[in-house]
Amino acid sequence: MVADDEQPEPADVDADSILEGAGFDADESVLTRRQAEVLALRERGLRQSDIADRLGTSRANVSSVEASARDNVERARETVAFAEALSSPVRVEIEAGTDLYDAPKRVYDACDEAGVKVNQTAPELMKAIGDRAGDAVHGREVRNRLFVTVAADGQIRVRRP
Question: In Å, how far are 13, 25, 46, 100, 147 from 43, measured between CA atoms?
Fold first, then answer.
């Protein structure tokens, strides 16, 4: 996003070029062309009111399109994470109320059983889980159920259902 003091002139931003340069394909995307266009213009620093003027609609409509687009992007990310979790050889559920200090042993045990090597020490693994879980972890307490998956190459992914 462009800083407020660096607002581009709306006429200087070409949404079609941005979408083409990013390889947008409406037939393959979870976004509609309008959603992609609004996101592209917003990411270039245009205000919703400027986008509304350009598209011949209201600011409220642009706000709604943007919110739907961001929701679709988040759902697509979750879908990819879910698909990766399904194919991961290691899947560990960390229940709410678990002490974060107990998580590495559970992950290591599951990795040993699956023959997968994790190249992280216990403190590194706790930090990775804590960082990737966001507000699902507070201090040492896992507040919301988490899924930790480990890919065959040792990559760790943390998901919140």
Answer: 11, 18, 7, 36, 31
Note the pLDDT tens digit of each residue in 7-34: 556 667 889 999 999 999 999 999 999 9
Instruction: Give yes or no: residues 74 and 93 share one domain.
Output: no
In a domain, 7, yes or no: no
Nearest-angstrom CA–CA distance, 13 and 136: 39
Separation of alpha carbons 113 and 86, rounded Å = 17
Predicted confidence (pLDDT) at residue 41 exceeds the cutoff of 70? yes
Picking from 39, 65, 82, the residue at the C-terminal end of a domain is: 82
Contact 141, 97 (CB under 8 A): yes
The helix (H) or strand (E) run that includes residue 147 is: strand 146-150
d(CA 153, CA 117): 7
Burial letters 120-151, b for 16+ CB under 10 A, else e: beeeebbebbbebbeebbeeeebebebbbbbe
Q: What SS3 state is found at 30? A: coil
Segment (H or E) for 59: helix 59-87
- 125 is a domain residue: yes
